From TrEMBL:
<keyword id="KW-0594">Phospholipid biosynthesis</keyword>
<feature type="binding site">
    <location>
        <position position="9"/>
    </location>
    <ligand>
        <name>sn-glycerol 1-phosphate</name>
    </ligand>
</feature>
<comment type="similarity">
    <text>Belongs to the GGGP/HepGP synthase family. Group I subfamily.</text>
</comment>
<dbReference type="Pfam" id="PF01884">
    <property type="entry name" value="PcrB"/>
</dbReference>
<feature type="binding site">
    <location>
        <begin position="155"/>
        <end position="160"/>
    </location>
    <ligand>
        <name>sn-glycerol 1-phosphate</name>
    </ligand>
</feature>
<keyword id="KW-1208">Phospholipid metabolism</keyword>
<dbReference type="GO" id="GO:0046474">
    <property type="term" value="P:glycerophospholipid biosynthetic process"/>
</dbReference>
<dbReference type="InterPro" id="IPR039074">
    <property type="entry name" value="GGGP/HepGP_synthase_I"/>
</dbReference>
<keyword id="KW-0479">Metal-binding</keyword>
<dbReference type="GO" id="GO:0000287">
    <property type="term" value="F:magnesium ion binding"/>
</dbReference>
<dbReference type="GO" id="GO:0120536">
    <property type="term" value="F:heptaprenylglyceryl phosphate synthase activity"/>
</dbReference>
<feature type="binding site">
    <location>
        <position position="185"/>
    </location>
    <ligand>
        <name>sn-glycerol 1-phosphate</name>
    </ligand>
</feature>
<comment type="pathway">
    <text>Membrane lipid metabolism; glycerophospholipid metabolism.</text>
</comment>
<feature type="binding site">
    <location>
        <begin position="205"/>
        <end position="206"/>
    </location>
    <ligand>
        <name>sn-glycerol 1-phosphate</name>
    </ligand>
</feature>
<keyword id="KW-0443">Lipid metabolism</keyword>
<feature type="binding site">
    <location>
        <position position="11"/>
    </location>
    <ligand>
        <name>Mg(2+)</name>
    </ligand>
</feature>
<keyword id="KW-0460">Magnesium</keyword>
C-alpha cells in the first residue's frame, strides 16, 4: 500500500455499467475503495464486490455502515472522523465494529484512517455532525493522526469540491509516518497533478459518474507526476 498513488472510489448506492466498471478496474489504478454515506446496503456492497472481483485490482471496503460489512475484500478501511463533534464517529462506532467483527477480519487487513472532512455541504460532514476546522485546526489534526494516534493514513476529504493545495502542502509537511490521502472535486488532469504534488494518494470518486473518460485520465496524470 505504501507504493500506491491513485485509488478510485465507487459508491455501492450508485449505478455503474459493466463497461464502465471494467474501464475503472483495468485503468491501472492501484486499488478500488467501495464506500459511501447514504443508502449503503449489504446487497449493494455484495453486488459491487462480486463484479469487481472479476478483475485483479485490490478491493477495499470503507466501513460506513455496520450492516454492510462482509468478508471477501482485501482490506477494510475504518474512518475516524477527527473533526466530528460527536465521540461516536471517532471512537464508538469503530469499537463496535471491532467487537462484532474481529473474528471475521484479519488484523493485517484493517486500516484506520484519520478523516478530516473539509466541505460543510458534504453529506458525510452533515451525517457525522462535523465542524469546519480552520487551517491551524487541520494542521493540528494531522499532527495528532501522525504523532499521537500513529494512524497509517490522514485523509483530507473535500467530498465533491476541490480543496486548497496550499493547505494540503502544509499538512504534508506535518506528516512523518502517516500517508496523506486527498479526496474531493478532482475533475481534470491538472487538478490531479496539482494535488499529487503533495498528497501521497489521490482518491477519485464522483468524476467516475459524471465523466468517465476524464476520470480515467487521472490515473496516468498521477502516476506520471
Amino acid at each position: 500500500m505504501n507504493a500506491w498513488q491513485h485509488i478510485f472510489k465507487l459508491d455501492p448506492a450508485k449505478e455503474i455499467s459493466d463497461e464502465h466498471l471494467e474501464m475503472v478496474c483495468e485503468s491501472g489504478t492501484d486499488a478500488i475503495i467501495v464506500g459511501g454515506t447514504d443508502n449503503i446496503t449489504l446487497d449493494g456492497v455484495l453486488d459491487l464486490l462480486s463484479r469487481i472481483r472479476r478483475y485483479t485490482v485490490p478491493c477495499i471496503l470503507e466501513i460506513s455502515s455496520m450492516d454492510a460489512i462482509t468478508p471477501g475484500f482485501d482490506y477494510y478501511y475504518i474512518p475516524m472522523v477527527l473533526n466530528s463533534k460527536e465521540k461516536k464517529w471517532m471512537m464508538d462506532i469503530q469499537h463496535q465494529a471491532i467487537k462484532e467483527f474481529v473474528d471475521m477480519l484479519e488484523y493485517s487487513e484493517l486500516l484506520f484512517e484519520g478523516y478530516c472532512i473539509l466541505n460543510k455541504d458534504a453529506k458525510a460532514f452533515i451525517h457525522t455532525n462535523s465542524y469546519l476546522p480552520d487551517e491551524d485546526d487541520v494542521i493540528a489534526y494531522a499532527y495528532m493522526a501522525d504523532k499521537v494516534f500513529h494512524l497509517p493514513v490522514f485523509y483530507m476529504e473535500y467530498s465533491g469540491t476541490y480543496g486548497d493545495p496550499v493547505l494540503v502542502e502544509k499538512v504534508k509537511a506535518q506528516l512523518e509516518h502517516s500517508l496523506l490521502f486527498y479526496g474531493g472535486g478532482i475533475e481534470t488532469v491538472q487538478q490531479a497533478r496539482e494535488m499529487k504534488e503533495h498528497a501521497d494518494v489521490i482518491i477519485v470518486g464522483n468524476r467516475i459518474y459524471t465523466d468517465i473518460k476524464q476520470a480515467l485520465k487521472t490515473v496516468k496524470a498521477v502516476k506520471d507526476s
